[in-house]
Amino acid sequence: STAAAAGSSGGTSAKTITLGFSQVGSESGWRAANTQSIKDSATAAAITLKFSDAEQKQENQIQAIRDYISQKVDVISFSPVVTTGWDTVLKEAKAAKIPVVLTDRSVDSDPSLFVTLVGSDFEAEGERAAHLLEKVLALPGAPKTVNIAVLEGTTGSAPAIDRAKGFKKIADASHPEWKIVASQTGDFTRDGGKQVMAAFLTAHPEINVLFAHNDDMGLGAITSIEAAGKKPGTDILIVSIDGTHDGFVAMTQGKINAIAECNPLLGPQLMDTIKTVLGGGSVPAWIKTKEGDFMAADAAAALPNRKY
Ligand code: AHR
What we know:
The protein is α/β, with parallel strands linked by helices. The chain has 10 helices and 12 strands. The chain has helices at about 30-45, 60-70, 85-95, 120-135, 160-175, 190-205, 215-225, 245-250, 265-280, 295-300, and strands at about 20-25, 50-55, 75-80, 100-105, 115-120, 145-150, 180-185, 210, 235-240, 260, 285-290, 295. The chain has a 6-stranded parallel β-sheet with strand order 2-1-3-4-5-11, with helices on both faces. Strands 7-6-8-9-10-12 form a 6-stranded mixed β-sheet, with helices on both faces. The protein is elongated. Bound molecules: alpha-L-arabinofuranose (AHR). Alpha-L-arabinofuranose binds near residues 27, 188, 241, 242 and 262.
């Protein structure tokens, strides 16, 4: 990082902040919007950003964080691909006195090893998806026997673990009639959703509901549902999470029935948090994102105002 000249007259000294950021990958539309938000807001905040894409591999993230430590950046931020296995590298950052601000996803480490998390409540998203499914199943013509397929996110990732937990909580508490007949990871990608859904449809022709942990897997699944001669949104009801542009378009076409929003535009809050932390201020342990719920009937009106 560079120190701006303070001037001989004793004027204020402005130090440019250097942020080392390790992104999970580029697996989804959500992630593309998140990356853009981080890059744009770093520029707007005059923060120097060192950015690397880990291609959904933990070892790449650990390597990137070690590189940032040796480059002596002012602050490190990352969205951890999985929840476990971070203690060693987080201790290295702490020993180097470089604060770590998590964003999007959390870790299962001792909370003293990072400053805060700027991101969503994934368990609440899973619960919200279940409540959206209740609404979809209350619409005319909805089936009474509910055979659910689940496309899970990346195995071991916070959103996959917590969305499954939140959904199950509501299902167990109130819906003995909901049967999860198939559940497997599609790694948060469109291709993963497509391939896993194709296999599900062959093995379980009784599936009439899909809960996809993100829009991209839902969109991939739509391709396979149509290829199998079924109508997405009618023969197989679909609820997903994110609220990307393509997810909204699928809702306007009646192919996705409802979406629980997960907001990827975390950059501005992340940059504000970093400035507060480096300025010696205190921040809450978790800075939560505000999100909405959308039924297909709301999609056309909402689409022009969507920002990602
Ligand atoms: O961690 C957030 C999740 O990661 C998003 O819901 C998904 O689309 C992304 O890949």
